[in-house]
Amino acid sequence: MTNSRRMKKKRHKTLAADLLSKGYCHDESLDISTQSCNGVIGTLTARRHGRRPAANIGARYDHNNAAIAVNFFYKYFPSTNINASLRFPEYGSSKLNLKFQQSFRNAALSISVGLNQSPDILLSAAIATSSIACGTESKYKTAAHCFTWYGAGVSIINPSHDASIILAERGDLLRLAYTHHFGRLRKISAFAEVTRRLSNNKSSLAIGVSCIVDNLTTAKTTLNDRGKLRPLLLHKIKPNSSLNISAEFNMKALDKIPRIGLALSWKL
């Protein structure tokens, strides 16, 4: 058999194999590949065989005869998410993130670690039921061997009212908030917020009311203890676009010209 006949026969076998098997998949799969204008190639491959999902994320940059490639392959449980980001040559901005969420128990845990010699570790955790939720978050600096930031909060949810207590800024700021909803449709709501700075024993108070005029328009107004009155009108032009009209009046100095704000958000 001549070489040309062998090659022709091989092409027929390849064509037959493509017709019989190419494109068919017995598993769930997703493949995405993109290339930027500066030559960075990014790939994402996800597979699910039975109940065992797995994914591979990679990036590659070629420059002259040198190439930098970063790949992460991981298998995860349905409620666990692991991702890492590496930046060259700025290693200090690289991070490793781990998120765990248990939906049937309404619990979540998130850990973020910087990939350097003295990383900052960010930790947040939350647990919730249908009527109450509580959570905490903190930042630990390994170079100083101390927590540089932490906070915690509790929220109570009810069909007619919501209330929350938050301790933030390393335990220096205490914030208490309460919202009361009127009617079954909750179109009108009144709210109040009290904050207290424990380091200087200073407190502040703000109250307000919100009204849902229709499916596209919402109006609200707030007033704080410094005499600042702030009305706001929010109108949705379409699902992803909106128009905001706001103002600020100083009730303790009505002779001053009020501040007017206009914001348009438009998404095609």
Automatic annotation (TrEMBL):
InterPro entries: Porin_dom_sf, Porin_Euk, Porin_Euk/Tom40. One of its GO terms (molecular function) is voltage-gated monoatomic anion channel activity. It holds the Pfam family Porin_3. One of its GO terms (cellular component) is mitochondrial outer membrane. Belongs to the eukaryotic mitochondrial porin (TC 1.B.8.1) family. This is Mitochondrial outer membrane protein porin 2-like. It comes from Gossypium mustelinum (Cotton). The lineage of its organism: Eukaryota, Viridiplantae, Streptophyta, Embryophyta, Tracheophyta.
